[in-house]
């Protein structure tokens, strides 16, 4: 048997397992097979992962006990939630916490109450069975054939969450989602669909920090967001991966008329390599904001793209990134904004603070206008901590490390405005640890 | 007076150019010393070298603080031992909020509890005319000349050093701020701090008892003349050129 055949069998086996376990409708299984076909044919051009097959074949067989409530979580996960101050968050926001395990969602009282008002949070596996219209949503902002990794995700996606906010429903407190994928015999490929119906508002905080995920070294999550007219969606993603994981987060959103999407990513532990290229299509009067904070350390490779298509009159887009780069890490920013309608506005800003000379930063802003009266601009500032500012702070008694941390914190803080204070505190702690080399 | 700062035969170079060459100075505990000298004579270089700026290389000589050699110590170690230098040109530090900075300073350097620190910062800031809003701005960013100088004094007030080096706290400040800074200097002196004041003008001494000050004149990196308060008046009246001619300091 040759390699290609072996791969085909392996993936087929996974597809069959998933489709049976999830009692999937036929359209989903067909979609998975389309993914498999595309996987064998699609181009692969990842700068870090030379051979994606490496990740398909290596699977471990560990099985974890089923999770029904927060109390059943493995101790590492519990302690992580504690460390992130989830208990505090829960008290404060009357609880908007949903923990996603393999196929079920651990719902708490808060979510049960809000479900009656029109907030649906279901595991993706359940949602596929419960909501036939997802056939028109699932993989509609992606094409399985666009890359090997997208194709592989299509074939073997598992886990993830479906969220729908009913028209006009405004959810006043952030909803926290944590991903916990237990059955590590499968690839890490959760699929997320968010539907914010017209006039609705919600803030989702995704903590991709699960220490359980570590058994796999490639994480391929996909998010599709559909934001209806006048709706407001905030999606804040906190990444804190172990350093041997490669992550390829794929996010896409359709931003409706006068709708707003604030997409913030805080990549503290981005994993060994992290390549993202979120895409957004913005309708008339709509607004999209991509805020990225990246901590590049060790030999990490991080590429945070971002493509914004301003398709409707007066659509606006902002792509703002701040990176703190150290050790031998390499950070690349390649934001693209295309103005395709009159009176659109786009801005790319890219700030980096480089802590030592072997760390590298590259920035390639791409502004493309198809119309006369679009306003597109970009600014980039790549700097080091100046000797004079360090001396000023040290001359008052701060140690070099304390002074550096203070400057780094000041650099990063402005982009943390959307993140609840409890997380900001945790984020600062992680940054401090990284800067002081204790990480 | 017991010696606090003792400088012996100090030679300091910046970018391989010798700026201070063979300077001697003794400051006793609680004493008030003034250093004057023409532009470029090395006053700021002396202050920065005392604080341990990495660009200012000590070629020769000794700096003892409380009887212990401090050459080779990092700036923060010197600060923790009780030396404070108010900069002639305070740095702007983008992104770092004054309130966060001062709190950290009191916590790390003085071991103060956050609540206590908060209280003291609010109180002392008010004494130096800083509004609560101002404390949420970034360090020195967009500050006027006078605001910068008052902010330096505020930090000294919070840290309560044993030796306070003030590098032209009076340049660029208005009449009212000048009076405030002079009053604060008197307060520092009364609390027993030693002061090493670098200035070009006697006005800053308006609230200081003239009898207590020791005056030193710096010329090309060396102290060529020392005396009492009259020396300040003489320089203000006659200028450095004439004074140097009269004392034969040009040899
Ligand atoms: N970082 C530096 N790099 C190069 N030259 C320097 C540096 N710092 C000081 N100098 C030089 O050393 C000499 C003394 O400068 P310094 O700032 O100590 O003078 P000063 O007495 O404080 O003058 P002023 O009254 O104008 O403040 C000057 O010629 C100055 O140009
Ligand atoms: Mg000077």
Q: What is the number of beta strands of chain A?
A: 25
Radius of gyration over C-alpha positions of chain A, nearest whole angstrom: 21 Å
Strand content of chain A: 25-35%
Largest interface: A-B, 23 and 32 residues
Cα separation of the termini of chain A: 45 Å
Number of helices of chain B: 7
Identify the overall geometry of chain B. Answer: globular
What spatial order of strands do you see in the largest sheet of chain A?
2-1-5-7-10-13-16-19-22-25
Sheet-strand content of chain B, in percent, reads 25-35%
Q: How do the helices and strands follow one another from N- to C-terminus of chain B? A: EEEHEEHEEHHEHEHEEEH
Helix content of chain B: 25-40%
Radius of gyration computed on alpha carbons of chain B:
18 Å
Structural class of the secondary structure composition of chain B? alpha/beta
Number of spatially distinct domains of chain A? 2
Major beta-sheet overview of chain B:
6 strands, mixed
Q: Let me know the average pLDDT of chain A.
A: 83
User: Which structural class matches the secondary elements of chain A?
Assistant: alpha/beta
Low-confidence stretches of chain B: none
Please give the count of helices of chain A: 11
Describe the structure.
By secondary structure, chain A is α/β, with parallel strands linked by helices. Chain A contains eleven helices and 25 strands. In chain A, the strands form three sheets. Chain A has a ten-stranded mixed sheet, covered by helices on one side. A nine-stranded mixed sheet of chain A has the order 3-4-6-9-12-15-18-21-24. A six-stranded parallel sheet of chain A has the order 8-11-14-17-20-23, with no helix packed on it. In chain B, a hairpin with a 2-residue loop joins strand 11 and strand 12. Chain B has 251 residues and is an alpha/beta fold. Classes of the chains: A alpha/beta (439), B alpha/beta (251). Chains A and B meet through helix 9 and helix 10 of A and helix 2, strand 7, helix 3 and strand 8 of B.
């Amino acid at each position: 048997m040759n390699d290609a055949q072996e791969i085909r069998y392996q993936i087929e086996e996974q597809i069959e397992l998933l489709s049976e376990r999830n009692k999937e409708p036929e359209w989903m299984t067909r979609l998975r097979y389309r993914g498999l076909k595309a996987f064998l044919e699609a181009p692969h051009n990842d700068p870090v992962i030379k051979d994606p097959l490496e990740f398909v074949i290596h699977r471990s067989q560990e099985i974890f006990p089923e999770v029904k409530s927060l109390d059943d979580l493995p101790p590492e996960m519990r302690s992580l939630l504690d460390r992130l101050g989830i208990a505090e968050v829960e008290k404060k926001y009357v609880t908007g916490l949903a923990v996603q395990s393999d196929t079920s969602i651990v719902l708490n009282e808060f979510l049960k109450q809000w479900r009656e008002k029109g907030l649906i949070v279901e595991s993706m596996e359940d949602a596929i069975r419960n909501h036939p219209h997802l056939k028109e949503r699932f993989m509609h902002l992606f094409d399985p054939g666009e890359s090997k990794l997208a194709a592989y995700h299509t074939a073997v996606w598992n886990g993830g969450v479906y969220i729908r906010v009913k028209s006009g429903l405004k959810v006043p407190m952030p909803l926290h989602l944590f991903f916990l994928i237990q059955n590590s015999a499968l690839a890490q490929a959760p699929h997320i669909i968010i539907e914010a119906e017209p006039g609705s508002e919600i803030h989702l905080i995704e903590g991709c920090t699960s220490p359980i995920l570590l058994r796999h070294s490639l994480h391929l999550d996909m998010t599709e967001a559909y934001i209806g007219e006048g709706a407001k969606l905030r999606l804040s993603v906190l990444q804190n991966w172990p350093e041997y994981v490669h992550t390829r987060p794929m996010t896409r959103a359709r931003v409706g008329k006068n709708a707003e999407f604030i997409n913030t990513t805080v990549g503290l532990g981005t994993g060994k390599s992290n390549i993202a290229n979120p895409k957004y299509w913005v309708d008339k009067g709509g607004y999209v904001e991509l805020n990225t904070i990246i901590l590049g350390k060790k030999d990490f490779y991080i590429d945070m793209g971002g493509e914004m298509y301003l398709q409707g009159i007066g659509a606006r887009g902002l792509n703002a990134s701040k990176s703190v780069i150290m050790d031998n890490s390499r950070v690349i920013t390649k934001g693209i904004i295309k103005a395709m309608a009159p009176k659109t506005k786009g801005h790319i800003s890219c700030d980096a603070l480089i802590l030592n000379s072997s760390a590298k930063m590259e920035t390639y802003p791409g502004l493309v206008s198809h119309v006369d009266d679009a306003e597109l601009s970009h600014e980039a500032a790549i700097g080091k901590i100046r000797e004079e500012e360090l001396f000023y702070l040290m001359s008052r008694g701060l140690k070099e490390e304390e002074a550096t941390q203070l400057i780094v914190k000041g650099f990063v803080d402005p982009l943390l405005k959307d993140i609840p204070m409890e997380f900001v505190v945790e984020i600062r702690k992680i940054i401090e640890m990284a800067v002081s080399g204790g990480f | 007076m017991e010696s606090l700062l003792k400088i012996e035969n100090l030679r300091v170079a910046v970018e391989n150019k010798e700026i201070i060459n063979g300077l001697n100075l003794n400051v006793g505990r609680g004493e008030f010393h003034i250093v004057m000298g023409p532009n470029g004579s090395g006053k700021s270089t002396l202050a920065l070298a005392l604080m341990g700026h990495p660009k200012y290389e000590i070629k020769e000589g000794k700096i003892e603080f409380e009887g212990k050699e401090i050459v080779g110590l990092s700036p923060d170690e010197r600060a923790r031992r009780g030396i404070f230098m108010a900069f002639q040109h305070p740095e702007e530090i983008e992104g770092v909020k004054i309130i966060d900075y001062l709190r950290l300073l009191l916590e790390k350097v003085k071991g103060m509890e956050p609540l206590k620190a908060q209280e003291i910062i609010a109180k002392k800031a008010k004494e130096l005319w800083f509004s609560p809003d101002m404390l949420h701005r970034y360090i020195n960013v967009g500050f006027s000349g006078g605001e910068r100088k008052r902010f330096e004094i505020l930090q000294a007030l919070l840290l309560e050093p044993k030796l306070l080096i003030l590098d032209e706290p009076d340049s660029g400040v208005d009449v009212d701020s000048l009076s405030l800074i002079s009053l604060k200097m008197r307060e520092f002196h009364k609390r027993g701090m030693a002061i090493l004041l670098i200035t070009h003008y006697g006005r800053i001494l308006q609230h200081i008892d003239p009898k207590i000050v020791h005056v030193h004149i710096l010329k090309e990196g060396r102290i060529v003349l020392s005396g009492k308060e009259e020396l300040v008046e003489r320089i203000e009246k006659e200028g450095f050129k004439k004074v140097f001619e009269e004392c034969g300091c040009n040899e």
